[in-house]
Amino acid sequence: MCLILFAWNAHPRYSLVLAANRDEFHNRPTAKADFWDDQPDLLAGRDLQAGGTWLGVSRAGRFAAVTNYREPQAPEPPLEHSRGHLVSDYVGADSPPLHYARNVLDKGYAYRGFNLLLGSPQELVYVSNRADEVVPVSAGSHGLSNHLLDTHWPKVNCGREQLDVLMQSETLEAEALLELLTDRRLTPGEMPQNLLDSDLPEQLARHYFIVSPVYGTRSSTVVLIHRDGKVEFVERQYGPSGIATFTSQFEFEIEGADS
């Protein structure tokens, strides 16, 4: 049950502010965030089982992130493709976000349910193979978990509200965003009917950060893209006990960005 909180063109200093938790089984092999040997311009963690990633940025300022769409009763496609390659394939290419998103939508039948954010320095779009169209992301704060963009799940609503508070500061610190992501309190709010009718444990819809010996929050990532072209990327990894095990930090300038 991943969570992505982000603000697009909503701050005078940053074009993108993003804070995301990746929840996954602890036995799924994963490489920490770094620039990839086979795609040197791509900065991302890596799923070593399928070869893709859940979130990545490029030196050209391209950005993508994916979450699964929760539908436990849906049949699996006979030839399932890895959703993580939707991220790495986009970030490593030069196709405009809208064009890539439309192609993905046409081929969405080959994947289990997904939500996909695709961005460049000028544009950010959202696409899901459980929706009918590509959506240009409007300026402001947004939240994405394992249903459609800005679905009114308790942790999505509360996360957006907390992000809005942080956005009132002139300068954002990655540590403040990481602290938001590691909040382990239950978020308040009425549970939507689609959650009440599902087998989803209520705490997964209310918790930002999941602690469990089998499945839980594996990493938190913060991405800050400054309007002057600077990119800050911080990933913090966690063990099954919820204790941080490693932090990776990167800063670089977008290639070709005006200084």
Helix and strand layout, with pairings?
Layout: E1 3-8, E2 14-25, E3 30-35, E4 42-47, E5 55-58, E6 63-68, H1 84-91, H2 97-106, E7 114-119, E8 124-128, E9 135-136, E10 140-144, H3 154-166, H4 174-181, H5 193-196, H6 202-206, E11 215-226, E12 230-238, E13 244-253
Helix pairs in contact: 3-4
Can you give keywords for this protein?
alpha+beta, 6-stranded antiparallel sheet, single chain, 7-stranded antiparallel sheet, 6 helices, 34% strand, 259 residues, Penicillin V Acylase, Chain A
Descriptive overview:
With 259 residues, the chain is an alpha+beta fold. The protein has one domain (3-253): 4-Layer Sandwich (Penicillin V Acylase, Chain A). The protein has 6 helices and 13 strands. It has helices at 84-91, 97-106, 154-166, 174-181, 193-196, 202-206; strands spanning 3-8, 14-25, 30-35, 42-47, 55-58, 63-68, 114-119, 124-128, 135-136, 140-144, 215-226, 230-238, 244-253. The strands form 2 sheets. A 7-stranded antiparallel sheet has the order 3-4-5-6-7-8-9, with helices on one face. Strand 1 (3-8) and strand 2 (14-25) form a beta hairpin. Helix 3 (154-166) packs antiparallel against helix 4 (174-181). The radius of gyration is 17 Å and the shape is globular. The mean pLDDT is 90.
